[in-house]
Specification:
With 286 residues, the chain is α/β, with parallel strands linked by helices. Helix content is 38%, strand content 16%. It folds into two domains: 29-115, Rossmann fold (3-Layer(aba) Sandwich); 140-264, NAD(P)-binding Rossmann-like Domain (Rossmann fold), CATH 3.40.50.720. The chain has nine helices and eleven strands. The strands form three sheets. Strands 1-11-8-7-5-6 form a six-stranded parallel sheet. It has a three-stranded parallel sheet with strand order 3-2-4, sandwiched between helices. A two-stranded antiparallel ribbon has the order 9-10. Strand 9 (234-235) and strand 10 (241-242) form a beta hairpin. It binds 5,10-Methenyltetrahydrofolate. Residues 49, 95-98, 120, 140, 241, 260-261, 264-265, 267-268 line the site of 5,10-Methenyltetrahydrofolate. Belongs to the tetrahydrofolate dehydrogenase/cyclohydrolase family.
Length: 286
């Protein structure tokens, strides 16, 4: 038996179709949501992601605002663009594409973003609101994972989720979402300091593999029937994506999110969700 696919492309398409109607409703009330991006440098991968985000915007009827700086840009030059986007009324939400060039104080840049325009859900204010159970933008990849599981009817309530990795964008933030009363999961967070990763993995109903270590999740460590989400993105010598999940896991798990085609497209869709929801909050006067 081979695992059923947690299809990120199809689920993202469903989310985008829902957003298309909500964007049209916002426009009728006089607010056109607009996603801004700031790309510093010309890394081809980063440029590809940013272009994808602008294509997504066009698909749902949103405006997009594109800002670029050379990789020689100074801290001051980057911060000046952030201030401009904060003040630009056409830009209702935006991201600063990461990573920023060496020598730039990334946290100082991110903290300058107007929290009302935080599309990534990773501003300290947004993360604080999440801890406090207040409404606000949610981190995109974790929220995408949640929607992917819900869309396919995978039970989260009462499930034991093992998260592998402690990066800010996924590992460190997804337990905050999963342990809310509305999700009710029990979460174990594993990382490079975990003494016996295999023993933890074998307990898991759901595995979120976000370590960035090729094939760290092996078939013999997965409980039959588990749902496994592959978040890791490494590249082999030919530039092909290698995930954190060994292909043999498909023979043990009941559900598997492929990589590519899983959480990547979901991350992009959730970025649009954050911008549309912020616009809906603004229209409601919240
Ligand atoms: N401020 C900021 N916010 C981000 O959300 C952010 C960022 N910086 N920096 C880089 C990472 C990476 N990221 C991806 C989003 C979508 C795909 C995606 O859609 N991937 C496709 C195709 C992958 C391929 O073939 O290259 C897939 O998984 O199917 C991948 C990677 C967002 N990031």
């Amino acid at each position: 038996m081979s695992a059923q696919i947690l299809d990120g492309k199809a689920t993202a398409a469903a989310i985008k179709s829902d957003l298309t109607a909500r964007v049209a409703a916002l426009k009728e009330r006089g607010l056109t949501p607009g996603l801004g991006t700031l790309l510093v440098g010309d890394d081809p991968g980063s440029r590809w992601y940013v272009n994808g985000k602008h294509r997504d915007c066009a698909e749902v009827g949103m405006e997009s605002i594109q800002r670029e700086l050379p990789d020689t840009a100074t801290q001051e030059e980057i911060e000046a663009v952030v201030r401009e986007l904060n003040e630009n009324p056409a830009c209702t939400g935006y991201i600063v594409q990461l990573p920023l060039p060496k020598g730039i104080d990334t946290n100082r840049v991110l903290e300058l973003i107007d929290p009302a325009k935080d599309a990534d859900g990773l501003h300290p204010m947004s993360l604080g609101r999440l801890v406090l159970n207040e409404t606000g933008p949610l981190p995109c990849t974790p929220n995408g994972i949640l929607h992917l599981l819900r869309h396919h009817g995978v039970e989260i309530n009462g499930a034991h989720v093992v998260v592998v990795g402690r990066g800010i964008t996924v590992g460190r933030s997804i337990p905050l979402l999963l342990t809310r009363k509305s999700e009710n999961a029990t979460v174990t967070q594993c990382h490079t300091g975990t003494r016996d990763l295999a023993a933890q993995l074998r307990q898991a109903d759901i595995i979120v593999a976000a370590a960035g270590v090729p094939h760290i999740i092996k078939p013999e460590d997965v409980k039959p029937g588990a749902a496994v989400l592959d978040v890791g993105v490494s590249r082999d010598e030919n530039g092909k994506i290698v995930g954190d999940v060994h292909p043999g896991v498909a023979e043990v798990a009941s559900w598997l999110s492929p990589n590519p085609g899983g959480v990547g497209p979901m991350t992009r869709a959730e970025l649009l969700v954050n911008v549309v929801e912020a616009a809906e909050r603004a229209v409601a006067g919240q």
